[in-house]
Specification:
By secondary structure, the chain is of the alpha/beta class. It has a single domain, classed as Spore Coat Polysaccharide Biosynthesis Protein SpsA, Chain A. The longest helix is centred in the middle third of the chain and has 14 residues. Strand 4, helix 2 and strand 5 form a beta-alpha-beta unit. About 30% of the residues lie in helices and about 25% in strands. The radius of gyration is 17 Å and the shape is globular.
Length: about 230
């Protein structure tokens, strides 16, 4: 019996692109489309995803809609404007998820190289643990600095670079949101939100190509990787 898609993807791309020198990174050309187009394709091609919700600036919506039509992105159901912070932007998307949704997959719209199979893997792990995120082990030795001086060197085998999507059971995510709003907390990472109520999150191994485009050089790297 085929699996029924039950995961809503919220693609967050409402930032100011300050490190891009004002360039709108999600609409930058990439391969035969643009950054958000390639990103939407990955979620379109994942059988677990039932719908795609995009949180962005109002001036981006028409081009994103046109991109979705060109790429035959049938799962795009809603677009909405973001808030002042990342967490507030995610909440705007959260208001639009389907009642039938069981899991929420939150993804940076500026990570276009995520693979459909890795999206499926992290969703599967979230089904088991309640929450999961893509990530990769760090390659370099990490130092903790205080006032310019090294104070500690944490063991590298316990350090991971956190990526997205980050996937959570919907009920658990709403519980964490209520807690954050009640205590006036605002997090830059959705895992932190779940951690704040004691939720356990599994680290699903992705790969190093799932880069986030934050500087002009990153687009060139993405082109090479594609």
């Amino acid at each position: 019996m085929p699996k029924i898609p039950d995961t809503s993807a919220i693609l967050v791309c409402a930032g100011n692109a300050s490190r891009m020198g004002g360039i709108n990174k999600i609409l930058m050309p990439l391969a035969k489309s643009n950054v958000i187009g390639i990103c939407m394709q990955a979620f379109q091609n994942c059988n677990d995803i039932s719908e795609i919700i995009i949180v962005t600036k109002s001036e981006n919506m028409q081009i994103i809609q046109e991109t979705a039509e060109q790429l035959h992105i049938s799962k795009l159901t809603h677009m909405t404007e973001g808030g002042a912070t990342r967490q507030q932007s995610v909440l705007q998307g959260l208001k639009l998820v389907s009642k039938q949704t069981n899991y929420i997959a939150i993804h940076d719209g500026a990570r276009p190289l995520v693979k459909s199979e890795h999206i499926a893997n992290v969703i599967q792990d979230a089904r088991i643990f309640g929450g999961a995120t893509l990530g990769v082990p760090v390659k370099d030795t990490i130092k903790i600095i205080d006032d310019g001086l090294i104070t500690d060197t944490p063991p590298r085998n316990s350090l991971y670079i956190t990526q997205t999507p980050q996937v959570f059971k919907k009920r658990l995510y709403f519980e964490a949101v209520d807690f954050a709003l009640e205590h006036n907390l605002d997090f830059t990472d959705d895992c932190q939100l779940i951690e704040s109520i004691g939720g356990k999150i599994y680290m699903t191994i992705g790969d190093y190509t799932n880069i986030k485009i934050t500087t002009p050089e990153d687009r060139k790297i993405a082109e090479v990787l594609l």
